[in-house]
Specification:
By secondary structure, this protein is mostly beta strands. It has two domains: 177 residues, Jelly Rolls, CATH 2.60.120.10; 120 residues, Jelly Rolls (Sandwich), CATH 2.60.120.10. It contains three helices and 30 strands. The strands form six sheets. Strands 4, 5, 10, 12, 13, 15, 17 and 18 form an eight-stranded mixed beta sheet that branches. An eight-stranded antiparallel beta sheet has the order 6-30-8-9-16-11-14-20. A six-stranded antiparallel beta sheet has the order 7-26-25-29-22-21, with no helix packed on it. β8 and β9 form a beta hairpin.
Length: 384
């Protein structure tokens, strides 16, 4: 999200001496993307952020693939993913390609025993159930049902959950996640026709600044491997920062739907974009208002992209027998559309209360073994 923000204490000029009231140096760190060409933030630490004490064992977290070249429409019963106490162990990859990893998670406990950093990917964490606080080196963000948490790669974080009943839909992106270019002017400001604006984006609030020394475990994901570092000082040592690269939240409930006289295509629901996929939000909205309009989506061929829909809540107008937490995958190369009877049922209706998240990828998705364990084997026949 190209928008300048600052928090805490910073010096008046970059790359200059900065000390605390007792004359101790603060240590500057550039937190950037795409070399020195992308969005970046300058942070100031109470202690050097480079103080590695030890390296522990590394473990592979590469997803186990069941189907590499999938051409079968699938339906996954997402809420059948079993809860786990550990945050990282709760994350279950279900659909994967070289641009993204789509996972489901049901963490039962807060992430407090260690710190986590994903250096492979930006993370978009959709909160389906639960509430709490995302705690990062750049400050904290309170979250609740319906929030997207956009966490840039390299962000060090922990998560506090308010209860043990949590359900997350997570998309990891190997390229940076932005708001769509067509929503912004050439200065980066969101335009009047955008379905949301800067007021709907919530950056970190209060900073947690520590000057503790000890043994601090950080788990770092890189190249599908989880590395374990022991740092000599607390990872949340930032006293201030400014820039454009930071985590933020956006609520799906703040997405203002675009409607028309006849059915409009899925790009009107677009919320985020990356180099390899887009994320869309389907929210309660008025239906098309032409007197002969067919509100249900028309049949369409997915020639260039795989379509993933994650059903959150409400009445899913175009599908039969769809439940909360379910995922459908309609692969590129074959047409899909409303289930039998859905088009007819939609005619004459004035609005929908559906809530869903869609991911359209530009490369085919592989299906993991964990996904096949929760798949409906007969979904592809459901248009008969």
């Amino acid at each position: 999200m190209p928008r300048y923000h600052t928090l805490g204490s910073i010096p008046p000029k970059r790359h200059t001496v900065f000390k605390d009231s007792e004359g101790n140096f603060y240590y500057e760190e550039l937190f950037g993307t795409i070399g020195f060409d992308g969005m970046s933030t300058l942070m100031y630490h109470t202690q050097r952020p480079t103080r590695v004490k030890d390296l522990l064992e590394s473990t592979s977290v590469k997803p186990d693939i069941a189907v590499e070249t999938n051409m079968k429409s699938l339906s996954l019963r997402g809420f059948e993913v079993k809860p786990a106490k550990d945050y990282l162990e709760s994350r279950v990859p279900v659909l994967v390609n070289s641009d993204c990893v789509i996972s489901l998670a049901a963490p039962e406990a807060s992430l407090r025993d260690y710190f986590y950093k994903n250096t492979d990917a930006d993370e978009v964490i959709f909160i389906h159930r639960g509430s709490g606080k995302l705690r990062t080196m750049l400050g904290s963000i309170d979250f609740e049902y319906g929030d997207y948490l956009v966490v840039p790669r390299g962000t060090i974080y922990q998560i506090d959950f308010d209860s043990s009943d949590n359900r997350l839909f997570i998309v990891e992106s190997t390229s940076p996640v932005y708001t769509p270019k067509r929503y912004r002017n050439w200065f980066g400001q969101h335009l009047e026709h955008s379905p949301y604006c800067e007021r709907d984006m919530h950056p970190p609030g209060k900073l947690e600044t520590y000057k503790e020394e000890g043994d601090f475990l950080m788990k770092v994901k890189k190249q599908n491997t989880l590395h374990q570092y022991i740092y000599a000082s607390h990872p949340f040592s930032v006293v201030g920062w400014d820039g454009y690269n930071y985590p933020y939240k956006f609520s799906i409930h703040d997405f203002e739907p675009i409607t028309g006289r006849v059915h409009l295509p899925p790009p009107i629901h677009q919320t985020f974009e990356s180099a390899g996929f887009v994320i869309c939000s389907f929210v309660p909205r008025l239906y098309d208002y032409h007197p002969q309009a067919v509100p249900a989506p028309y049949n369409h061929s997915n020639i260039d992209s795989d379509e993933v829909l994650y059903y959150v809540d409400g009445d899913f107008m175009s599908r039969n027998n769809i439940g909360v937490g379910q995922i459908t995958l309609h692969p590129a190369g074959i047409p899909h559309g409303p289930h039998p009877g859905a088009m007819e049922r939609s005619i004459g209706k004035k609005s929908t209360e559906e809530l869903a998240v869609m991911v359209d990828t530009f490369k085919p998705l592989m299906v993991t073994k964990k996904a096949m364990e929760i798949a409906d084997p007969d979904y592809y026949r459901s248009w008969l």
